[in-house]
Amino acid sequence: MPNATPTCDIGFIGAGVMGKNLMLNLADNGYKVAAFDLDNDKLEALLAQDSLERGDQPPRITACSSYTELLSRLSAPHLIILSVPAGKPVDDVCHKLIDAGIQADDIVVDTGNSLWTDTVAREKAYEGQCIFFSTAVSGGEVGARFGPSLMPSGDPYAWTRIKPVWEAIAAKVDPETGKPIESFEPGKPVTKGEPCAAYIGPGGSGHYVKMVHNGIEYADMQMICETYQVMRDLLDMSPHDIAQVFQQWNQGVLNSYLIDISAQVLATSDPDSGQPLVDIILDKAGQKGTGLWTAVSSLQLGSPAPSIAEAVYARAISSLKTERVKASTILAGPDKPRLTPEQKADTVQALHDALYCAKICVYAQGFHLMKTAADEHGWSLNFSEIARIWRAGCIIRAIFLQSINDAYQRNDALTNLLLDPFFSKQVSIYQQNWRKAVAKATESGIPVAALSSALSYYDAYRTAVLPANLLQGQRDFFGAHMFERTDQARGKKFHVEWNQPGRPIVKMN
Asked: Is 342 a catalytic residue?
């Protein structure tokens, strides 16, 4: 139907889980959507859901049978949103849209989990054919449906056209309390509050920020899991008991989406066997790559993010299920200590404090990485605003993010979150229990790689003199890599003639 009368505001390609829910969200907010998907069953499911939700109101979504029809349904200049798998599918769709007749001032928005460097390349590749723009989306299917956190980046002009759309569908936060304003009723979107959508910067920066968001998410999830395992294996607590602890923690400084859903998972029983559901879920974790990308980027930029890396490694070692089962019958561990009820209660409190302090360090790692990337690529990232748009809609949403927002409001040039007065005081207050929890787990043979790596990060960051002096001596000994001296100006290099009598020190520049 190439000559169809333009009746829609937005074109949307991809009616999978995220795409379907984003389209329904757009429709709730008054936008008429022209939809296309190669899978007609997905389009039919979308239309059926729209019909169910709108009742006797006119259709809000129009299904299209081709890219050409989709363009014909839209008024120029076109705004087309993609929700397709990252990688080659994004380019395939762009090429088909170009063949169908999109113009240089049409905007194509990628909302998938694309690698940020791919986004930079696409912006250049499609220049003059369309305006390629990107928006990273966090919040899963529920967030997409009722309000996600959105991290757009790219052409500033494109942002002026997209801004009202994204601010309409984004999650909202009460500006007074910093808490989410939520509605999960179709057709009744939240229209008040601060939207969790903000322009991040040049092309690729939004997907980079989302990548780091996911890296923090990996670490946060892993630390919660480690806390669960200590309670389970050392304290002999049932999943139901641990769920109650998490529910209690969710009322305080650890309040977050991830703590909430962890409690819900642990409180759920398998309907067939009656066993705790968590006990029949295979302990073999999957991953889609964003945590790995974050760890790799931290290594490339030299910005330490050990807890994020350990969370990636934890998923990798979980995949070695067969090997681990065999190793459990061969490799010895320590005897399990016997704890009194009072000691168990103390350990639960220590775990709470450990999780809180480690969480601070993980965010410190993530924000330091974003700052390093911004310096490297010439981005002007607003870290207060990034924390602000993560307060609702996204997977790592937490009350904790208001404190991060406040920290960067106090000092937008903050080098590291740990140096903020609020956070430095918090870790100072709770660090002893953090140490106790990590020590108790280690003594008991329970792996807590993320919790302990966060502690090591904190201790390394606060240490004025690290053993890297010996390391530099080693490197100079076997490889003549040279070193700087503490009693000389920075930048001056020296080398020891290690094989000469008296080992004379030679100034190299």
From this structure: no
